[in-house]
Design goal:
With 165 residues, this protein is of the alpha+beta class. It is built from five helices and seven strands, in the order ββββαββαβααα. The chain has two domains: 116 residues, Pnp Oxidase, Chain A; 37 residues, no CATH class. The longest helix has 14 residues. The relative contact order is 0.15.
């Protein structure tokens, strides 16, 4: 239910964008092509811009608890076809765009990095309360006038929930 999409501009400037949703959110068109919905996010279009300049992409698919990953390399393009977008709806909302990928290379990646990092072992995770959230860091940097940290955190969470789809 989660993947990382790597793109690069024509000049080689790289970007990696997380994509995730319920299992099956990536739609397989046929044995060589897949489509990834573009859900609401941070409103940055780095990956889309890169695909327009340079269609070569890399994907790493992750399944929580599985140490192996599936890697896909291929050529991407932006999809606006309503028939295809309809197959990607979630919570009765169609994505405005999608990213299609024609696969050129597909392979499994060994689990060694996951074993070494203990990524799926909760006992090895840092204490969540010891790490600041993104909202806390932004509050400290932006210092919004007239808002307490608690108000800012509540509004941030409400905005996140409201714009998931």
């Amino acid at each position: 239910p989660f993947l990382l999409l790597a793109t690069a501009s024509a000049s080689g400037r790289c970007d990696v964008s997380p994509k995730g949703d319920a299992p099956g959110f990536v739609h397989v068109l046929d044995e060589r092509r897949l489509v990834i919905p573009d859900r609401p996010g941070n409103k940055r279009l780095d990956g889309m811009r890169n695909i327009l300049e340079n269609p070569h992409v890399g994907l790493i698919f992750l399944i929580p608890g599985r140490e192996e990953t599936l890697r896909v390399n291929g050529r991407a393009w932006i999809v606006r076809d309503e028939e295809i977008l309809a197959k990607l709806s979630a919570r009765d909302k169609l994505p405005q765009l999608a990213i299609a990928v024609e696969t050129e290379e597909v392979f499994f990646h060994c689990p060694k990095a996951f074993r070494r990092s203990k990524l799926w072992e909760p006992a090895s995770w840092p204490d969540r309360d010891a790490l600041p959230t993104m909202a806390c860091v932004l509050y400290e940097k932006l210092q919004p006038v007239g808002k307490t940290l608690e108000e800012y955190l509540r509004e941030s969470e409400e905005g996140l929930q409201r714009t998931l789809y």
